Structure formats: structure tokens, C-alpha cells
Amino acid sequence: MSTDTDIKSFKAFTYVGLALDPIHVGTGGSRLGRVDNTIVRDPVTRIPKIPGSSLAGVMRAYTAMAKGKYPHCAGLGQQNADGNSGHCSQPNCPVCTVFGFAKGRDSAGGFAGLASFSDMHVLLFPVASRIGPQWITCPMALRQIYSTEVKLTDENAIYPKESNNINDINLGWLLLQVKSDLPEMQNISQKLENYGINKDIVKNLCIVSNKLFGHIVNSNLEVRTSVAINPSTGAAEEGALFTYEALPRGTVLTWEIICRNPKHFKINGAYITVSTPEEVKKVLDCAYTYLEHLGIGGMGTRGMGRLQVLHNQTNPENCNEQNGGEK
Prior knowledge:
2 domains; eleven-stranded mixed β-sheet; 17 strands; globular
């Protein structure tokens, strides 16, 4: 059970985002199979996700851009041979305090940072059907934002928000019987709208069982084919054809950021400039405009990666966007 001290020590913020492009966060290699370059999946459910480390990396870079601290306070923080570059490590630096810093490869010390990032999980997944696109979810996915346990009477059926007087819905190759006896549907729909999700998406909401959700997601990922171009001939390089998968445009993701109370920490004996978990959050919110335009993950030059934050984003007045900055 949490005590008053625990509550004052940190604050959790839940975010919801919409994929404006397909998103590819790869596993770092290729394998034999249907797709050469696969995306990261949960090791138990096999549902694709975006690791918190991927989110933290781009958020640090984009926050540094917004705060005029790029590139010094972004990246690994390793110093050059002459001792220049690297993280500034100052208690008034919004990047080094929120994300932490390293002293260097052979130097002791450092700071862990005030923000911790969870993995980004699929909340709603778009699938084509004969009645148009449907956004699919399951009780396990809804548990991230909806505290009441959702119980389905038939694990092999589909529960749409609006049944439209039809008896079944196809999700790609899968045909499921329509059921409408889900009393929590209205509360779930309202909860999703409260998180900033478009009403047109909520209107086409469908709930399936946990055991079906993973199969539906993995069967309907976007798969693209690319080939390297020979710069001498301008034609396709021989033997350079490869495929890669991605979360499709329209996927709704959710994640959590834990902001620690800066009053519990000092850097070089000095108090940190940001003073509350809410101020830590405001520093992070400066980066979301960049996330919407520059994206996350790989294949950014192939039209992938942009993510729009829908919920729990503020518009702080102190972002002071610059093209660069001095340490």
C-alpha cells in the first residue's frame, strides 16, 4: 500500500498517441520467414510494442532541440579527446536533469534522471473489414486505461460498439460472430473519448478476447518491400530486395511516464531547477511537437514514424525553441 511519502515522491502520467504513419521499431536483425526485418514484440503475448528505451532516446533528442541544448546534452554524453562536448551536467539543465547524464567512459558519477518511460503498448488496432475499418481492442489492452475488468461471454465472438444489424464481421481472413451483450461498452467508449481519441475511431470500436487479439494484430501488420538502388546504374541492386513490417497508420498506443520529485535529489550539491513532477512533465511535453513531425523508430525516410500525442499533453510557455544552443 502506498504511503503519503510514496505519493509525494513521484507521479505517473498516462499518455495516448495516434500513429500518423506506419511505425517500425525493429529488432536489430533479420531472420528467415515471411518478413526479413521484424518489429519488437512482447515475449509473452507476441503483440508488437515500442520499447521504453526507444521512446526515451528520441524524447531526449527532441527535448534537447526544443530547449536549445542540442547536440551537447543529447546522445551518449561522451567527451571528445580535448575534453569538449558531452553532457553539461548542470542542475539547471532541463535535459540533463530530466533524462540523466553520464560523466564519461572513465569517470565516476552521473545522474539517473527524473523521468522513467514504460513500453508503448497497442490500445486500439485498425483492421480492414467488409463494413470498413474497425479498431480492435481486448480486455488486456483496455486494462491500461480502464480500471473495471471487462468480461466477455463468448471468447470466439466480436463485440462492436454499433452492430449495424449484421451477424458477423470479418477481420482480414477471420470471420467472427457479432455479439452485443456487453454492458461496459458505453463506459469504455466514453473513457476513450476522454483520452482524446477521435469519435470516428470510437464509433468503429470492436472488442475481442485476449486470445484472438494477438492473432488479429500479427495477421494485419503492414508489410512493405524495399530494394537498394545501385548509384552507378540507377537500377535495383541485385540480391538487395528485403521486406519489413510495421504497425499500421491509425494504431492507437498508450504508455506511462513516471516523474520523480526533484526535491529528493541534488546535483553537485545543488538543488535541481525544476521543482515538481508536474514541471518535469512540462519539460517532456516540449518534445511532442517534434515527435509528431520527426517521428520515432526506423524507416523515417520511407514515410514512417510520425506519432501524434492525444492525451495528457500540455502547451508549456517555456519551451524556448531554438535551432541550437551552447552548454
